[in-house]
Predict the 3D structure of the following.
Amino acid sequence: MNNSATTRTITKIALEYNGNDKGTAEMVSSNNLLSSTSEGQFQEMKTVAERNPKVKKWALTGYISQPDEIGRKLTDKEFAEIASKALEKIGVTANNQFRLDIHNSTKQKHIHFIVNRINISGKCTVKSHDIGKRFGEAVRKVCKEKGLLTDVEIGIHKKAEMLKSLTEAIRSEDNFDNLISEMKKKGFEVQLSSNVKDGISGMRIVMEKDKNHQTDRIYKAGYKLSEISNQLKISEIKSVFEMKKAVREAQKHADNLKEFRENMQEKGFSVKIKYKGEFIAGQKNEIQDFWINKIGSSQEKNRFFFLKNVGFSLSAIDSDLGDTVKSLNQNSVINDASNHLKSEKNESLIEIAGGLLGDFLSPTYVSQDEDELWKKKRKLRR
């Protein structure tokens, strides 16, 4: 569940907003409030807040927005209970004033709360320190207690689906325009950002079903590429597209593998052939794959597609293109082992990508309020 909580000083307008929502709001719970009007309730809260003049930001306000994955299963009463229990975990008691209102005017039902941090005895029961983070943790604990998916778990599932669809689109397409179209067919909107120095420099992916223009100002849908995978970078996607374009051009003007490699070298790429088993001169060896790297590349780290010191596996990033190159006349390399990929470097890109995806599925999602636990775990893995 997306959530937010902040401390502030409020006016009666805040209560009016909570109780209206274009006429669709429904108050599902209130505590220690006698008046039925927004102005009356504000005056009651303000009177109690003045019992502790040291606390200036006496109100706690926020919301919980339930995604479709949870919303379809919850009644209004159950939703209000989640909010109430989460508020209890951060210090709200039976002696605090509060009201909970469910809003239905947007695509995703959400609940707003206004709480007086000062209880009727004049004590501040809700600490302001890290309130957003603590409230997010409280919501997750309540969800787990009720057997519901948390925002972290929902985020993991969504990002795994995004990563799978994105890598499929990268393998099937040769440029960003086609990638965007392919992702749209899969139910995702790809938003690219750019700058003068690098051109395309960033990517955000949004599930079409999650788009909610009415709440864009509250929280932004989707995830940045860096949130989806810490291995797949925009620069690597650019390299894949550049390499695939070079391969297509090189194989068009080549009758055999020797010419193909020479054409690729002219374009700035080295080509190594990986055979099934050891290379035996004087006979036709079965080709398993081509590994292509940019000449003079200083890339030393594994990426999602890239294997350090070797390059990109052509069959892994575009199996159709790999089959096309394999179909070229192989007689020119029958006695040439100079560009044979040694068997000790036999780890396939699919195995590497599988390992990276396994690491990715360990929760690294950080919700709207920063979750220090996952940050620490990421640091320990480095």
In short: The longest strand covers residues 199-207. Residues 236-356 form one domain. DSSP finds 14 helices and twelve strands in the chain.
